[in-house]
Amino acid sequence: MDSMKKNIPQHLNHDTVSQWSLDKILSKELYLGFLESFYKQELFSAKSDGSFNDFINIRFLLELLNTRRLSFPRCRLVSNGTLIPPMSYTLQKQGALGEKINSLDIAKVTCLMDDGATLVIDFCEDLCGSISDVCDDFSTIFSERTGATLFFNSGQKVGFTTHWDNSDVIVYQLSGKKRWKVYPKTVDMPIAENTDSMVPPLDPPLWNNTLEANEILYIPRGFWHSPEPCGEHSLHISFAFRRRNGMDYIKWLVPKLCDELVIRKDIDRNSDIISTMEFVESLKVVMSKYITENTLHSFIESCDNKPLRKSFFTERSLLKK
User: Fold this and answer.
1) Which of the pair, 92 or 64, is modelled with greater confidence?
2) Cα–Cα distances in Å, from 264 out to 132, 259, 272, 283?
3) Closest among 100, 104, 69 to 88, alpha carbons compared
4) Helices 246-257 and 293-304, interaxial angle, to 10°?
5) H runs (alpha helix) in 99-241
6) Quick one: average pLDDT of 123-129?
């Protein structure tokens, strides 16, 4: 365990998780193992001795479905890798004051789920304090805002086909079972802009196992994976966070680059070779002026200045005199 600690960057090397909500998911030993895998960008799986499914379970899912106004796209159904058209399971109701409310059609949703569709609910950190606490802790540890998504299915059909995510994902199996096949990356550190050029791998899976209740799986960005049903229900929650990369830095620079005339200048489609070379060189000069260590540090500071933890109303804020 001590050798494991040495490989973890200092800002991630916490000695305990007992004071955080993460102890609902990870013990101290699992936490350190997970950090090691995170740092190396390797798969990680383990049996948790946490109690998160005491809070988030089938009863919790039923409460969400029966008491919250969940509408598309936050709440959606997926089958065989395809989004089921929301018009087939949503309807408009009238509220107590006659206002129109988008709502789930319980009978149609139930029918589609009986047929094997997977139910997906995004932004669960806004629906439950326990989930929000865990997301905030992950956000603090990794300096990136973390979101949570709930997945439920009870049939034999695949919800999501083999795919990769543009974020790191921590899967926590709450109840039931789900089989996961995780494949090698076909592009190292892919970003959203790579999507159209990427095809699923032909290699056999690196990891081919079934997650049961209280088991976790960490999938770093870019690893292809395929979740498959096991003949019984499955309820799991995923925590996802996307780390800033070079493309984010370039996008951050764009408004600043607009101050430069050469960036705003029209491209002469009829220019000769020399004029084209001069234009390209002038662009390189401007880019080198802006892509510097100082601007990179400024970009990082701008990311760090964004709030990572949610703000909450408190009794004091409401009742202050």
Assistant:
1) 64
2) 43, 8, 20, 11
3) 104
4) 100
5) 106-114, 129-142
6) 93
Confidence (pLDDT) at 307: 79
Q: pTM (2 decimals)?
A: 0.87
CA distances from 146 to 131, 137, 171, 206 (A): 11, 9, 13, 26
**246: nearest Cα among 194, 308, 317, 181:** 194
DSSP count for the chain of H helices, then E strands: 10, 13
CA-to-CA dists, residue 261 to 51, 250, 291, 314, angstroms: 59, 18, 17, 50
| Alpha carbon of residue 66 to chain centroid | 25
Handedness of CA 229, 230, 231, 235 (dihedral sign): negative
Rounded to an integer, what distance in angstroms lies between the CA atom of residue 35 and that of residue 20?
A: 15
What residues does 237 pair with on adjacent strands? 150, 172
Helices (H), 156-304: 246-257, 261-264, 273-290, 293-304
215 within 8 A of 134, measured Cβ to Cβ? no
